[in-house]
């Protein structure tokens, strides 16, 4: 049994080595773990640095950056809450789920049909469900960064790419995003409101307006998903965490406007994509 939300594994300890297969080239990237942003809820945001052993093909990456890992092993949903029982990760259930996925040829196609909530005693079923939700969040986040390229480096962080984290004694390699690190940041709820300028607030509002025009609804704009830096006298504000975002596909202008309206910040977020599979739990 592994506790989630309480203890970090040895590969998330300062100085630990990590390796990642960059997509789509499959280049192996060697990293060193620096710190984790805990507690984890869905993704795991960790700060890493490049290992000197990397070849020059990865020189476009900064020395330190955020790795946002979608490893279902650490989902906080596994912790007991109210009438919901604990659903601890086990290698056995992960391996059974991974074997069934392979046998049924359910690969990493982003358009897969998500499963319904499994029966209580179906441990591999839960493992599959957590895995699918990790994949949905990952696909939502990379799709959003892709559509919102024009906003990166101002009110969004720079998205450098993605890869598969290689972990020993596991039956899956979790997806991860490589993101610009905002040093000395505080979330909107942690800063003194007096130091947040009208200009910064205006830039955030303008950005949320742009999301809709660029075919994205964020669905989770909370103070915890807005970073201000430097924290004691902010000069930059960025919106992070697109794991629950919805992407415009073939909706008409009218349909899309309605979706944007429902998902407008301040209104209880409608579940645009991945989050709907967690609703009611
Ligand atoms: N680019 C970044 N630079 C600096 N800190 C970051 C960055 N991205 C994430 N963090 C830190 O990690 C925390 C979690 O990140 P994020 O919200 O993306 O993950 P999450 O698992 O979706 O979290 P949650 O579900 O709690 O909102 C942030 O609140 C912030 O403290
Ligand atoms: Mg968040």
Question: Key features?
Answer:
binds magnesium ion; Tyr_kinase_AS; alpha+beta; Protein kinase domain-containing protein; three-stranded antiparallel sheet; Transferase(Phosphotransferase), domain 1; six-stranded antiparallel β-barrel
Structure at a glance:
The chain is α+β, with helices and mostly antiparallel strands and 281 residues long.
Report on this structure.
InterPro entries: Kinase-like_dom_sf, Prot_kinase_dom, Tyr_kinase_AS. With 281 residues, this protein is an alpha+beta fold. It has 2 domains: 12-180, no CATH class; 186-263, Transferase(Phosphotransferase), domain 1, CATH 1.10.510. Helix content is 23%, strand content 20%. It is built from 4 helices and 11 strands. It has helices at residues 91-103, 123-147, 198-213, 253-262; strands at residues 17-23, 28-36, 44-50, 64-70, 159-166, 175-179, 186-187, 216-217, 226-229, 236-239, 246-247. Strand 2 (28-36) and strand 3 form a beta hairpin. Helix 1 (91-103) crosses helix 2. It is globular. Mean pLDDT is 90; it is low at 1-5 and 267-281. It binds adenosine-5'-triphosphate and magnesium ion. Adenosine-5'-triphosphate is lined by residues 37, 41-43, 45, 66, 68, 157, 179-182, 185, 187, 224-225, 227, 240-241, 243.
């Amino acid at each position: 049994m592994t506790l989630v939300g309480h203890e970090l594994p040895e590969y998330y300890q300062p100085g630990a080595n990590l390796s990642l297969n960059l997509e789509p080239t499959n280049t192996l990237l060697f990293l060193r773990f620096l710190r984790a942003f805990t507690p984890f809820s869905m993704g795991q945001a960790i700060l890493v640095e490049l290992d000197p052993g990397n070849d020059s093909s990865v020189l476009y990456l900064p020395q330190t950056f955020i790795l946002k890992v979608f490893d279902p092993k650490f989902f906080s949903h596994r912790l007991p809450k109210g009438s919901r029982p604990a659903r601890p990760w086990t290698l056995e259930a992960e391996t059974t789920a991974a074997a069934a996925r392979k046998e049924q040829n359910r690969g990493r196609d982003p358009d897969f049909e998500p499963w319904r909530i499994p029966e209580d005693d179906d441990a591999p079923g839960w493992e599959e469900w957590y895995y699918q939700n990790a994949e949905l969040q990952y696909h939502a986040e990379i799709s959003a960064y892709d559509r919102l390229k024009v906003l990166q480096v101002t009110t969004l962080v720079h998205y450098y790419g993605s890869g598969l984290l290689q972990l020993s004694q596991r039956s899956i390699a979790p997806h991860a995003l490589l993101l610009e690190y905002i040093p000395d940041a505080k979330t909107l709820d942690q800063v003194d409101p007096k130091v947040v300028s009208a200009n910064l607030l205006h830039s955030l509002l303008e950005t949320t307006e742009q999301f809709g025009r660029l075919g994205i609804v964020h669905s989770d704009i909370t103070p915890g998903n807005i970073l201000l830096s430097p924290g004691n006298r902010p000069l930059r504000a960025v919106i992070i965490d697109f794991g629950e975002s919805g992407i415009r596909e073939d909706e008409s202008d009218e349909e899309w406007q309605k979706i944007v309206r429902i998902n407008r910040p301040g209104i209880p977020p409608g579940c645009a994509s991945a989050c709907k599979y967690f609703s009611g739990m």
